[in-house]
Amino acid sequence: MTVGPVARDADTAAFFDAAASGQFLLRHCPACGAISAPQSAQCERCAATDLDWRRAIGDAILVSWTVSHGRPGTDPVILCIAELAEGPWWWARLEGGEPKSLSIGAPLRIAYRHPTPDSEVVPVFVPASTATASG
């Protein structure tokens, strides 16, 4: 199972440009300094709408997961929710992990995949122990 196709619009262009270069962006509030999830239109702390982008370090911990078994004959896919080191939660595919070996709080790292030629590069999570320096 792949994600896609994922297409950009004016609101997501900066996020996808950054993902294509191996960076994960979060929303930053200049008014109060809070960090919010990438999809946030307003600050989660003070409700300001004048947000800018900040690069995340790429570390996370596993909060929850589920296994999607899909069609017969296909490999199961792990979908997870992870808490980024900066605080916001993000959901994505988890690659390289075995469902039986997962545990809440397991360290993860963001990696990037280009699922189809017509899709944007998308962030996924991988176990931190298997992540490479290039993500």
TrEMBL record:
- The ChsH2 C-terminal OB-fold domain, residue ranges: 53-112
Q: Which SUPFAM superfamilies match?
A: Nucleic acid-binding proteins (SSF50249)
Q: What is this protein called?
A: ChsH2 C-terminal OB-fold domain-containing protein
Organism of provenance: Trebonia kvetii
**Taxonomic path:** Bacteria, Bacillati, Actinomycetota, Actinomycetes, Streptosporangiales
